[in-house]
Amino acid sequence: MQGYAIGELNESASRCRRRIVEMVYKAQSGHPGGSLSCIDILVGLYRSVMRFDPDNPGWEDRDRFIMSKGHASPAVYSILRDVGVLDDSDLDGFRSLGSVCQGHVDRKWTAGVDFSAGSLGMGLSFGLGSALAARLDLSERHTWVLLGDGEIQEGQIWEAAMAASHLEVGNLTAIVDRNRIQNDNFVDEQMRVGDIASKFRSFGWNIIEIDGHDMNDIVSALSEAKASVEPTAIVAATVKGKGVSFMEDNPAFHGAAPNDEQFAKAMEELS
Hints:
By secondary structure, this protein is α/β, with parallel strands linked by helices. It has one domain (about 5-270): Rossmann fold (3-Layer(aba) Sandwich). Helix content is about 45%, strand content about 10%. The chain has helices at about 5-25, 30-50, 75-80, 90, 125-135, 155-165, 185-190, 195-200, 215-225, 260-270, and strands at about 65, 145-150, 170-180, 205-210, 230-235. Strands 1-2-3-5-4 form a 5-stranded parallel sheet, sandwiched between helices. Helix 1 (about 5-25) packs antiparallel against helix 2. The protein is globular and about 50 Å long.
């Protein structure tokens, strides 16, 4: 898509945050915390760097986006709504039977979704295969994979990281949503993942570390990654539940919906 001014990108992110909270509230189910932590990244990606046509989301030569932490589906649906692939009625059906907006992203159900998520840890391997397919097709398309920081406790992530470096897959970028919280608690309480940047660097990846809520940082890092001849890992420092005071840095809102009073407060803060 064409690039937008930073102010326009921030406005898009604000709209998406409101839609995320609305979706989870209406469904009384879903994962608001990790959706709010990564939405700035998705806005920067879809609206400035990624090769993607909202009028033709199935375009064969589009960049591919893999939401490996697929429970953060509200973030995906909100940006797809913001660029015009989905509409409000689609989002109103979030997590309901037969809806195109299921609880986890699913490419069989939703236009603009490239990966059917389930168990964590699989997205980077899938993304590597997608990037290699582009090489075989002599295509310039790029593959972007969004990972949770708790997710990288999965060993399959590191098998894919090793293979991507060995195969010199420069058209692959992993973005780690470093919000420091996973399903049950803070990541450091569950299983420390240490210095993520150093780990990827030791596997031969190009590394970029950013503030995952600074749109200038985001757009600059995505552009640098797309130009790299090595696989790139962007480690984005983020805040779980960003934008809603009582959700920020709160493990309870990894997978909980706000009640009526909380919803009203959240929408006031996001207005």
